Each structure stands twice: as C-alpha cells, then as structure tokens.
Amino acid sequence: MSRTGLPRIPKIAFGGDYNPEQWPEEVWKEDYRLFDAARIDTVTLGVFDWALTQPAPDVYDFSTLDRVVGRAAAEGRQICLATGTGAHPAWLARAHPEVTRTDFEGRRHRYGQRHNSCPSSPVFRRLSTELARRVARRYAGNPAVVAWHVGNEYGGACYCDLCAAGFRGWLRDRYGSLDALNAAWYTTFWSHTFTDWAEIEPPSALTEHWRGPNHTAFQGITLDYLRFMSDAMLANFRDELAAIRESSPDVPVTTNFMGMYRPIDYHRWAPHLDFASWDNYPPDDDSPAWMALTHDLMRGLKGGQPFWLMEQTPSYTASRDVNPLKRPGVMRLWSWQAVAHGADAVLFFQMRASRGACEKYHGAVIGHAGRQDTRVFREVAELGAELDRLGTATLGARTPARVALLFDWDSWWALEISDGPSRLLRYQQIVHAYYRALWAAGTDVDVLPVTADLAGYRVVVAPALHMLKGDLPQRLAEVAEHGGSVLTTFLSGRVDENDNAFLADVPGPLGPLMGIRIDEWDARGPEVVNPVRLRDPAAPAGTGADDETGDEAAELEVEARLLFELVIPEGAEVLGTYQADFYAGTPAVTRHAYGAGHGWYVAAGLDQPGVDWVVRRVLERHDLVGPYADVPDLETTVRVAPDGTRLRFLLNHGTEPVETVAHTAATDLLGGGRLEPGESIRLDPRGVLLLREENRLPSTAVARDSEGAQR
Ligand code: GLA
Ligand code: ZN
C-alpha cells in the first residue's frame, strides 16, 4: 500500500519524457539550454532503457544512465526516473521465448514492439524486478530523483500457457473450490461443468470466443480473465515497487495510466501507487468533457489527491491514421485544464523528437531541427514562464465536489461482453453523456469507484451501473435517506459480481430506492427514435408547453435511442414518458421520494439535451449548478488550496471570445489585477483565467445572477 504520497516539488512540475540516450552528448548541452529557455524543471528518464542498462543476461551497465541522470541532476532538474521495463530486450526474448506474449488468436509472438512481456513469465518477473532493484539502489540517494516511474502504460493481454496456469491459481484463490467456480460461471449451461482445474483454458478465439474479445459464450470466465490479467500486471508493478522500496522507502512511486483504458482496472491498482499519473491523448481534438471526465477519474483514484499529467503531446501524435495538430493556444488550454482538475504536474511526451522509428513524426518540444523559434517551442516556453510565476498556488489543492459519478470497470466489462440487449451500448459513451451534463452545469465532480465512501455527497450519478457488488445498494439508499439524490439509468442493477442475473425484478437491489420495476426492454438500431416528453417536477401539475398558460421550460421533448426499458412505477412519480410505439405514454424517466431524498431512473438512451435536462433538475434541487453554467464553451472548476484559498479556473474551449460576469471578487493569478462582483470578464478564444476568489456569494444568488446576466 502507498506510504509516501505525492512527490515533494516546489511548483507544478513542468517538462516530460526525455531520451538523451538517443543522441550524442553535444546535443544534450543544447537540450538543457533550451530547457532553461522553456523553464523545463522536470525530466522523465530511462523509460525504455532496459537493453542499454542490461545488454546481456549477466551484465548491468549503468554508464549511459549514470551520465543521463548525472547531467539532469547537475543541471538542476527534478527527475522522474523510470525502471526501464516498458520494453524488454531482444536477447531476453531469444534466450527465453516464453517472455513474449501469446495473443487472443493463440499466436505466440516473437521479439518485437514494446509492452510485449507475458506478465506471468517467471523470467520476466525475475529480471524486471532485478532491474528495478538495481536502478533504485543506484539512484535512490540522488536528491534530484523526486519520483519513480515503473514500466510504461501497462496493458494488453496474454493467453499463453503460463498465463493459463496463473489464471487457474487466481481462480483457486477466488473460489476455493470447483463447485463454487461452476456455480459462479453457470457452467450447467452448455455442459461446461469443470471437474478439474486443469480443464480451464483462457477465454480466447480458440476457446469461448467468436468474432472477438467481446463475444464470449461464458461471461463469467471472460470477466474473470479480465480481472486476472489486470491483477497479473498489477503483480508485475508490485514486484518492481517492492524492489524499489528496498533502497528507496520515501520517494513516491507511480506508473503512467491511460485514463479510461478498459483492460486495466485502475481502481484495483490505485491503492498500490503513491500517486496517480496518466497520459492524455484524447480520441479527437474536440472533447473537453471527455478529458475532464478522465482527469476526474484519475484524481478519484487516490481519494482526490492531486495527480500528475505524465504525458501529452505539445503538438501532434503519430500513431493515429490521421494526426491533427494542436491549434495555437490548445496545448496551454489543455495543460491548464489538467491543473484545473487536480494535476500537480504538466509533462510532455517528449522533449526532443526521435529521429527514427515509429515516433519520428510525433510532436516534441524540440523538433528535428533543434529550433527555438517555432510556434510549439514558444508556446511551451510561455507556459513554462506562466507556471513559474504561479509558483505554489495550486499545489496540493483539492476539488470540493458534492457530486460523485460512479465508474466501475466490472460494470464496463460486463456490459460490453454481454450478448443482449444491444452491442451498440458503450459504457464510456453512456458515462460521458451524464458527465458532460454535469460538466456543462459547472459543478465539480468526483469520479469514484463503487467502493468509495459516498456519505459526503449530495448527488450520486451512476450511469449503467450494470453490476452491483457488496453493500453498494445500501450505501446508495443511505445517500437518498439523508436527503441526497441518486441517479441511475437503463441496464443498472442487472447482475451480481459473477455476472449472473438477480432473481428479482430489474433493477434488482436498486428496486426499493428507485420505486420502479422493469419487466421488458426493447433494443433498436440508431435510426429508431422514440421521443420522450419530460415534465419538470418543480412545475405545478398542468403547466407545460402544451398548456397555453404554462411555463415553456416545464416540458421538453427529447429523443431516445438504442434501448427502451418498459417501466412499471412502484411508488415513483413519472417525469418522462415515451411518445411512440405500443408503450407510448409509459414512463421513461422516474423519480422516487426515498427518505429525505430521491432515486432517479432514466430508462432510455436519451439524447444529450435529455440527459442535460434530467441532470439539471437533480442539481437544481441541491443548488449545485455552477455560477457560469450555460456560458457556451466555458468550463469552470474549483480547487481549494491547503490554506483554504478557493481557486476557480475558467477555460474557454471555443474559438470565439467568451464574455461573462464575475460572480464574486477575485484576483486574477495569471493576468494580474482584481475583479469585482458584476464586473465583466472576457476570455480570448482558448483563453484561461485562474481566479483566487476573495469571498463568496450564497451560491443560489450566484446562479441566478449569472443566468440573468447572460440573457
Ligand atoms: C505513450 C507512451 C510513450 C509514447 C507516447 C506517444 O503515451 O507512453 O512512450 O509512445 O504514447 O504518444
Ligand atoms: Zn502469458
């Protein structure tokens, strides 16, 4: 378990992956001159140095790494030092072919690429641990080393015989007996009863799967293999962690995560890291809410403790089919967005572009020509200067969220490996729609595991909470009992931790809280729309768009797609009804008074305006709509510094300027100057404001004021 917390740094760490071993030493001198110019204070070193540091089975040669580390320290940089096990050396694969992976189709790979080691291979485990041990022993005393970086972007999967054996051992630990395993996997179906542990094969294209990793005949075995593979790689991480600890008990250890990365259950990993770090390469260049969700997920890994942005490209990636360039201002904006969501480091991949191999066209702070007068370098240097000026203000600051969004790898896996009701339902998209609604409302959100303590939250949103584990239903009920709101959706409360259906009405143990039951459901292609009419529960009955005298906002018709659950209220009030098909007029959205609070259920795949509407009704009840909600393209977050100072970030993701009005007195920490309440604020396209708020209006007044001001 984690012992040391965050790296001790005097300001937001700024820099990134640096691979001077790819270059002659004359170049290093120039690199540091440029680092000075850009105020680069942190370098991540040695991520792929295994073959250099251990060129042969019995030879450890630290001469290169000594010079690389020594130079960085002499130049006054902080070092995030990698153990170097992100890729194994060619000699290792040749000497021990079992260190390479066997893929889903059953092909044993030969030497090549990276992230290529079988997590169950004893040779890999022994040698990776030994390398980590030696690296740590050699550099632990170097005060420039502020963090250890284990491996690199753990992921993928292996289906070899060693993994099969590891899987069987993992299953014995989990189930104790074959009877328990057979029950969990429901093996009476299709004559699958296992009578010997040795009969169990990894679920792959050769065994339970067809069409691919999501199409399995037995969800139980596939789910357990996903869990096992995540645990097997966690064991690799922990091997190295333990080896580092032998000589470096106090320097924090991390590994770079990949955000919403399906194969690894980061919630199971998080307790073993001292601090979380991740690499932000969003799927496209227009997804601020997607990135925000991922930052919040990463911050949630360590109970809200700040994380490090370990990698982002300053300009473009290279691995996509098409690699767009970050527009002017976007690198700065996204860097501040990370900080706004809890990052204490802003790091790039990478400092100097590789000359060859597959990343030669990947963006870097310093390009092949080594120029300082490029737009990218200039923007990096400007950000470096800005971070320098800011100093300690945001370090260690926490997000004061009263809204929790539950994110669960088990539910993700179970939902996406399910046959029925629809392959078109994607967990991330469902979660993102709800997160985006919260984000647009300007409320701070903690994205949490289902095991988190929910007691401090007024609103808990749990989209597609397919699997219910442990005492979660009870803890959700308690949130509502104490006056909070719990919002969940279609496909929630369906299965237990073994992915077996509850022998009860849907949504299983959530039924009493939601005050509904679901007898049947209808999945349709994306072209089929069933409109849903929504009615504001706060509006008096009889008002609505239909009603000449009614308030227009009281009713709204939105579109629903993909899945339509047929809801029978058992105490819940109906806030939205289907408008078409044989179930026209039946409930699609319900709210159930439970204790002093509510259980909300959205039974259909509402479009974004529909999700926004529901989420807004929930937030309004708790007065949690932010002061700048509804200003188009404007994102806001709050962090509270250890001394209690409230810091508000305003981020304009749009290409047009944004005008709004200050809701409270504040000091502009980046631009300088003071703002009085009611004073107009202008953000340039991609502009960022960081405000130290001096006092705070009651937030209801704030919300009304700013809404008024926008009209
Ligand atoms: C990942 C890796 C890096 C590099 C970048 C390129 O995040 O960790 O080594 O390959 O991608 O985008
Ligand atoms: Zn393997």
Protein model, in words:
- With 711 residues, the protein is an alpha/beta fold.
- It folds into four domains: 13-158 and 231-390, Glycosidases (TIM Barrel, Alpha-Beta Barrel), CATH 3.20.20.80; 161-224, no CATH class; 403-621, 3-Layer(aba) Sandwich (Rossmann fold); 634-702, Immunoglobulin-like (Sandwich), CATH 2.60.40.1180.
- It contains 18 helices and 27 strands.
- Helix 9 (266-269) links the parallel strand 6 (256-257) and strand 7.
- Helix 5 packs parallel to helix 8.
- The two termini are 52 Å apart.
Distance between the termini: 52 Å
Strand percentage:
15-25%
- Give the ligands present: alpha-D-galactopyranose, zinc ion
CATH superfamily of the largest domain: Glycosidases
Per CATH, the class of the largest domain reads: Alpha Beta
- Binned, the helix content reads 25-40%
